[in-house]
């Protein structure tokens, strides 16, 4: 399948233009849905139909859909912009780091230069991961991570929460295995039935994300490189919430 190379910054501009300037009636129309279908290889079901059923699927069926998904758009080794990538790396604290939904392992390998890194994903496929010997890769679902409590100093999860079926459970798991800090990146995207990705969770505004994360702990939440970068400090004693 021939793939079109589009940078993350370019895809952000395209999605922003469609989300902000195309009327909702057209955004969710059949012509746009047809265009979305052309961006993928053979689909077991349309993206819009998948979104209708996503919250009813079993964990295995849900994972199977993603494992069979083949996009004709290639954003390179990471879907992080250079700015958000730098922001994530700068936010890491401690030596033990978990990269949840590590994808091709690009971020995990960069972090491995100064940290002990574990990369976790629902399906670790041969040939898809990087070559850094200091990174340990393993399979695991975000909603039920195979690690003990407080196993890592920092837990990183980038461009993942927009895909999960149960957001509360996912955040609980990320916090459970992190002892010092949680670092999350999600797209700043408006909810539509027809989108160029199978996202089922959407965070168009800051409050859209904070509604799920809460504000009980010390945190920062800002747009970096076009996406939301959320950093939360985890403290058994609890920390005062950040100022708005």
Structural commentary:
- By secondary structure, the protein is of the alpha/beta class.
- It folds into two domains: 4-74, no CATH class; 82-233, Rossmann fold (3-Layer(aba) Sandwich).
- It contains nine helices and nine strands.
- It has helices spanning 8-21, 24-27, 30-38, 47-53, 59-68, 82-91, 106-111, 167-176, 206-213; strands spanning 4-5, 73-74, 96-100, 116-121, 135-139, 152-158, 178-187, 219-224, 227-233.
- The strands form two sheets. The chain has a seven-stranded mixed beta sheet with strand order 5-4-3-6-7-9-8.
- Helix 7 (106-111) links the parallel strand 3 and strand 4 (116-121).
- The longest helix has 14 residues, at 8-21.
- The N and C termini lie far apart (47 Å).
- The model has no long low-confidence stretch (mean pLDDT 87).
